[in-house]
Amino acid sequence: TWKWVVGPMFLYLCERLVRFWRSQQKVVVTKVVIHPFKTIELQMMKKGFKMEVGQYIFVKCPAVSKLEWHPFTLTSAPEEDYFSIHVRIVGDWTEGLFNACGCDKQEFQEAWKLPKIAVDGPFGTASEDVFSYETVMLVGAGIGVTPFASVLKSIWYKYCHDATNLKLKKIYFYWLCRDTHAFEWFADLLQSLEAQMQERNNADFLSYNIYLTGWDETQATHFVVHHEEEKDVITGLKQKTLYGRPNWENEFKTIAGKHPGSRIGVFLCGPEGLADTLNKQSISNSEADPRGVHFIFNKENF
User: Fold this and answer.
1) Which of 98, 123, 148 is the last residue of a domain?
2) How far apart are CA 56 and CA 35, in angstroms?
3) What is the pLDDT of residues 38-69, one digit of tens each?
4) Model-level pTM?
């Protein structure tokens, strides 16, 4: 038995030593941004830190807990000179981080008063392959929308810098959430991208649909009254918020009809049930002919 145990234990100890070494490397918190609904954004810098889109890190704040590490998806793009995470205050640890960063105080907080942060990572995810396709479907459910903040930022940076060498030509983005107000920071990012794409006369580069799944009759009535307004009353975007859940079969057939003979990457960050649905649709809507349309499914669950 001991022969089978020694190998995994040795690898585990090596991983712990690497994490301890990484935790001793200096991390500078350059900015703390308070977003609505008790969400904070930490912008940080670390020597030698290199990331790709959609990756995540483990974060420890000794001022809150000396032993706890928590995973957070990176919301910055590799092209930016810092890396960032968005933290929603939903528990004791996040509440402690919120207070340690001085977010509970009204006055301006000096940078040297910010708590020490330890970072381990980054670690890879399926989202890194998004640039391998000409057409992609990005599906985020609830907090699963976070990785796509990094993806959309990076795509836009690459598009603005040299669009001719960018293989990716079309993005279909789906955001399923019970309450968009909990992620207003992401709606702000979409507004910025929407405005910039219109300035460059390329509004068709990104097609997005926001589905509010936790709706009731009162919200639906309010939606109907304001549907004809130029911008959506919930998100402030030109694309109107939809109620209920998408008909995935129709969505896949529509996209397949628009891009015949293409390899289309389907990227999901969401629950296992939605992953099963999208995987089945990817298989059923892919053609047997190698020259036909093929949906390649990629997922990460939380």
Assistant:
1) 123
2) 20
3) 788 888 998 888 888 888 899 998 888 888 88
4) 0.76
